[in-house]
Amino acid sequence: MTAHQNGTISSEVSGFLLNCFVRSHTWQLSFSLPLSLLFLLAMGANGILLITIRLEASLHEPMYYLLSILSLLDIVLCLTVIPKVLAIFWFDLKSISFYACFLQMYVMNCFLAMESCTFMVMAYDRYIAICHPLRYPSIITDQFVAKAAIFIFARNVISTVPIPILSSRLHYCRRNVIENCICANMSVSRLSCSDVTINRLYQFAGGWTLLGSDLILIFVSYTLILRAVLRLKAEGAVAKALSTCGSHFILILFFSTILLVFVLTHVVKKKVSPDVPVLLNVLHHVIPAALNPIVYGVRTQEIKQGIQRLLKKGW
């Protein structure tokens, strides 16, 4: 029990309960099967892609190293979110400790920002490949990938640290039921008895600064790529140039579309079921992760051939 200056007494919260789909309990069982299949697909496909890139010498190139970083981020995001959601669905294990909740919050925010940053670096890689092909080997080197990886890690690890710190420093009394499947920042913060204005402002400013700047740079890169491609006059050059960017552009659409729909449902949350944002929040951590390696595996001939060679060796 804790006494406050105004004389009121409240009990401190030592843990939280994740209340998934509180208004639609039937969703849990019907949703758990496709979610578990998506999780297995994401883990398996990303694992195969990482092994293929690691063992195939022909794939030891900067573009595939960047793809490896993306796969690692997807695996961590899936492991951070989906096992806990499935444990809630199957075993009703809704409780999560105070520190585990804020750790999950940090990893989700940090790694989603890292993924966005990786897409931005990959867009720059495609821009150099299409717009400055002769300079590509001298610009996009192994050293470039190493520096890019350090930048991706440092920028997002540092910039997202305040999110869980600000939330953990709030005073939580009486209410401890999070109306979400995961420890999303604002889902947790709104349980607090304290003023959460700073939390909202930092989440908004940080999100638009990190993700917004990445999307703007990606848009600029693809605008320049499109302009360069339209100038190509050689037969088949346009199709070949667009093909090299197609996989990456599809991945960005997966990532940004779900994120955009999630934001829009929050804006019009009074007109949609409260379960819809919760569902989208969960899906955003698994659908891109499941589709990313498949899109690259299907559309990139070198990766497809690398997987086939590994399978033949396995047999």
TrEMBL record:
<keyword id="KW-0552">Olfaction</keyword>
<dbReference type="InterPro" id="IPR000725">
    <property type="entry name" value="Olfact_rcpt"/>
</dbReference>
<feature type="transmembrane region" description="Helical">
    <location>
        <begin position="242"/>
        <end position="264"/>
    </location>
</feature>
<dbReference type="InterPro" id="IPR017452">
    <property type="entry name" value="GPCR_Rhodpsn_7TM"/>
</dbReference>
<feature type="transmembrane region" description="Helical">
    <location>
        <begin position="144"/>
        <end position="166"/>
    </location>
</feature>
<dbReference type="Pfam" id="PF13853">
    <property type="entry name" value="7tm_4"/>
</dbReference>
<keyword id="KW-0297">G-protein coupled receptor</keyword>
<feature type="transmembrane region" description="Helical">
    <location>
        <begin position="96"/>
        <end position="123"/>
    </location>
</feature>
<feature type="domain" description="G-protein coupled receptors family 1 profile">
    <location>
        <begin position="45"/>
        <end position="296"/>
    </location>
</feature>
<dbReference type="InterPro" id="IPR000276">
    <property type="entry name" value="GPCR_Rhodpsn"/>
</dbReference>
<keyword id="KW-0472">Membrane</keyword>
<keyword id="KW-0812">Transmembrane</keyword>
<feature type="transmembrane region" description="Helical">
    <location>
        <begin position="64"/>
        <end position="90"/>
    </location>
</feature>
<keyword id="KW-0807">Transducer</keyword>
<dbReference type="InterPro" id="IPR050402">
    <property type="entry name" value="OR51/52/56-like"/>
</dbReference>
<feature type="transmembrane region" description="Helical">
    <location>
        <begin position="276"/>
        <end position="298"/>
    </location>
</feature>
<comment type="function">
    <text>Putative odorant or sperm cell receptor.</text>
</comment>
<keyword id="KW-1133">Transmembrane helix</keyword>
<feature type="transmembrane region" description="Helical">
    <location>
        <begin position="31"/>
        <end position="52"/>
    </location>
</feature>
<dbReference type="GO" id="GO:0005886">
    <property type="term" value="C:plasma membrane"/>
</dbReference>
<keyword id="KW-0716">Sensory transduction</keyword>
<protein>
    <recommendedName>
        <fullName>G-protein coupled receptors family 1 profile domain-containing protein</fullName>
    </recommendedName>
</protein>
<dbReference type="GO" id="GO:0071396">
    <property type="term" value="P:cellular response to lipid"/>
</dbReference>
<feature type="transmembrane region" description="Helical">
    <location>
        <begin position="208"/>
        <end position="230"/>
    </location>
</feature>
<keyword id="KW-0675">Receptor</keyword>
<dbReference type="GO" id="GO:0004930">
    <property type="term" value="F:G protein-coupled receptor activity"/>
</dbReference>
<dbReference type="GO" id="GO:0004984">
    <property type="term" value="F:olfactory receptor activity"/>
</dbReference>
